[in-house]
Amino acid sequence: MLIENLANELVLHIFQSCSSISDVLNLAATCHQFRSVFAASQRLPILYNAAEADFGPLQDAIQIVTHNASQPAHLIRNVPLSLALLKQLVAVGTAAKKWEEMYPARKWKYNSEDRRLLTSTERFNLRRAVYRLWLYSRAFHNSRYVRTTRLHRHNVLERAELLHNWSTPELAEIEDMRQVIRDVLQTHICPSNGTIQRKYRNRHPDSDHQLVFNTHLNHPSLPLSTFEVHFHSTHQISASATKISHNLKYQSTPFHEPGGEGWGDDIPHYYIVEDMLKLDPGQILWLKENAPLKGMVEAYVRDLGAWFENNGETFGQTLEWVMRERGDDVEELREGIREEEMGIV
């Protein structure tokens, strides 16, 4: 039997079995009959079913895109399906899937013999952890929560309420993902002086150029105007400009000193990374792909406002609070993640 002669009920079942939105749209473009079946059916449920298979759990992603300051973050929001909502979910889900691809290299950075692809269950758990960390960042890392109020009991309890939505194994998955994001931050986006020195020597082993590092971190930045805030703005950096910047980072020229790309060492570098961990996974991913130079990152952060500086992330502190309330030790949880007894894998 020719495929175009299949009964409409069978064609609809095939649509409902698609595991991605692109599969649904490609199937609809196969022939006139398939297009007419898709057009005549309830397209939104089909598309959302495919999105759930590709980007799920969508319920957690929905909490991100529907969050607003008028409603507590820990309350679960159920919203009607729409194409506008689906587009936002696809944007968030696409970012989460990029973290899927990066996770193995970061998780087994020093144990490459253990490196492997993630199972479908692990990928699902990773996306869930990304969405939940994203929601936390959107809810509590903003201008309403300045440095001087982070320890106010009301704010601590408000943050803890969100974490109480999730079981201890689920919190371990989030903490596992947070450590991977930290590694990306301190290796690629805000590398220490030592990291810059090592990478420069690896690229230019025969160079006798001595890198000059900044003695303080408030030196003038590269003058750049506007940067895209992931999912919040329409400013763009061209692909060609980004490629040039990536190539320039470790080149010594009369106009560029590679040592200036370092973000300090030891304690100063630690606190810079703590500050940058307030960014959500989408913002960090965007910086990794589009802002290779230190001046670009600094300009991006300046656009966020004065509240961002010297105001470290609060998830780690809140996690410790919640674990104490449950009678557990957060260091045991972190050790379990390192030993792969807890977490995403």
Provide the descriptors you would attach to this structure in a database record.
mainly alpha; 345 residues; 16 helices
Separation of termini?
A: 45 Å
Helix content: 55-70%
Gross morphology: globular
Count, helices: 16
Biggest β-sheet description = none
Order of helices and strands: HHHHHHHHHHHHHHHH
Q: How much β-strand is present in the residues?
A: under 5%
> Which whole number gives the mean pLDDT?
90
Structural category is mainly alpha
Q: What's the gyration radius in Å? A: 23 Å
- What's the total count of β strands? 0
Uncertain parts: 216-235
Description of the molecule:
The protein is built from 16 helices and no strands. It is mainly alpha-helical. The chain is globular, with a radius of gyration of 23 Å. It starts with 7 loop residues before the first helix and ends in a 7-residue tail after the last helix. The model is unreliable at 216-235 (pLDDT under 50).
SSE layout and pairing:
Elements: H1 8-16, H2 21-28, H3 32-40, H4 43-55, H5 58-65, H6 83-107, H7 120-140, H8 153-163, H9 168-189, H10 193-203, H11 239-248, H12 266-276, H13 281-290, H14 294-304, H15 315-325, H16 330-338
